[in-house]
């Protein structure tokens, strides 16, 4: 059986790219088709593993500046240029760039692992927040109906849907009228020495891309009000949060760090702060818990599926500075059983992911 993998595009590395990496290791002979691939952490991660990456015929244009964002109205033609008629099984890892609508042969099976239907297309927070601006709304008024039609029609060509959370499964049913199996993403953290885990620091941690929808500004304000140190890990993306916004007496911005260093930061933190208001799943939350670290998260989206209040963390109802600060103070009052937190996170391990994916895919 000839298998191909498809992914939206390769730019910055996030949770979706980690899932893609695991899929590429599960199906090592499968080439990876993308709309475009910029030189960056995501492409490097796959290049280092010798993966064959194939760009669409639009790739050269989409890589120029932020053309990939401006040309979303051209997505039907981008994906129609991708010829997968040589393959019997196509597994697509899709989200905001609608990695569907490619050409397949009659009888070929298409399985979609969906991180979320396009957030920008259905009114959810986006990295830049452009869809909340007047010009973003004008753009959506013009191209939205056309792209939504393509999104819906291409969704009907998928044989099997897999969602990364119950939250996303609800969105798939709402926007595509399709049922989806839920397979949580694989969580992998490097081993760290036991004495490192036992030695907790005096800081709270945020791990996210530096964009508006991730609650970075709210976490900074809440930590300042609570009087605690906040360390922030993550790449700056496009027109996201500016570096000067991260410069504060209680904030240490670390940028992108290697996985081993990230594991140590998780292990040393008093808690992880995760304030995205409608998170699709939230892999960083489970990564923190895998290191025995409790989580302060907004009570919404995928966080409701991973955080057990009082046992693995706290869910709060708002993201204003006062509510976040109160949440941090509550975190300080609880004697967390860190080994039990780590045990809970093991249910999201890679072996479980691979078994469930193969069970659904049948290959």
TrEMBL record:
Limits of the Glycosyl transferase family domain: 198-347
SUPFAM superfamilies registered for this protein in UniProt: UDP-Glycosyltransferase/glycogen phosphorylase
Molecular function as annotated in GO: glycosyltransferase activity
Keywords in alphabetical order: Transferase
Alphabetized Gene3D superfamilies for the sequence: Glycogen Phosphorylase B
One Pfam family matching this protein: Glycos_transf_1
Superkingdom field: Bacteria
Glycosyltransferase subfamily 4-like N-terminal domain sequence ranges: 14-188
Name this polypeptide is given: Glycosyl transferase family 1 domain-containing protein
The species this protein was found in: Candidatus Collierbacteria bacterium RIFOXYA2_FULL_46_10
């Amino acid at each position: 059986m000839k298998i191909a993998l498809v992914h939206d595009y390769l730019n910055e590395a996030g949770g979706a790219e980690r899932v893609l990496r695991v899929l590429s290791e599960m199906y090592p002979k499968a080439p990876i088709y993308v709309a475009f691939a910029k030189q960056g952490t995501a492409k490097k991660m796959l290049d280092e593993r010798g993966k064959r990456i194939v760009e669409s015929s639009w790739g050269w244009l989409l890589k120029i500046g932020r053309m990939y964002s401006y040309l979303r109205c051209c997505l039907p033609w981008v994906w129609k240029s991708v010829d997968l008629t040589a393959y019997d099984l196509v597994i697509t890892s899709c989200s905001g760039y609608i990695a569907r609508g490619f050409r397949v042969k009659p009888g070929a099976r298409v399985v979609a692992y969906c991180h979320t239907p396009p957030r920008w297309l259905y009114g959810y927070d986006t990295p830049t927040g452009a869809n909340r601006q007047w010009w973003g709304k004008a753009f959506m008024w013009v191209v939205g109906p056309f792209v939504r039609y393509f999104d819906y029609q291409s969704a009907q060509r998928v044989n099997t849907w897999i969602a990364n959370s119950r939250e996303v499964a609800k969105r798939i049913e709402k926007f595509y009228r399709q049922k989806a199996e839920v397979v949580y993403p694989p969580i992998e953290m490097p081993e760290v020495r036991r004495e490192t885990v036992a030695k907790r620091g005096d800081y709270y941690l945020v791990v996210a891309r530096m964009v508006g929808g991730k609650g970075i500004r709210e976490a900074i304000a809440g930590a300042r009000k609570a009087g605690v140190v906040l360390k922030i890990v993550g790449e700056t993306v496009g027109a996201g949060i500016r570096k000067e916004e991260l410069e504060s007496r209680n904030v240490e911005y670390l940028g992108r760090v290697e996985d081993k260093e990230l594991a140590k930061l998780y292990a040393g933190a008093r808690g992880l702060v995760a304030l995205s208001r409608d998170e699709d799943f939230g892999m960083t939350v489970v990564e923190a818990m895998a290191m025995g670290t409790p989580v302060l998260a907004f009570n919404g989206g995928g966080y409701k599926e991973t955080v057990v209040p009082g046992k693995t963390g706290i869910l709060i109802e708002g993201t204003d500075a006062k509510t976040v600060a109160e949440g941090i103070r509550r975190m300080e009052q609880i004697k967390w059983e860190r080994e039990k937190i780590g045990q809970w996170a093991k249910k999201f391990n890679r072996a479980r992911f691979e078994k469930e994916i193969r069970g659904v895919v049948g290959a």
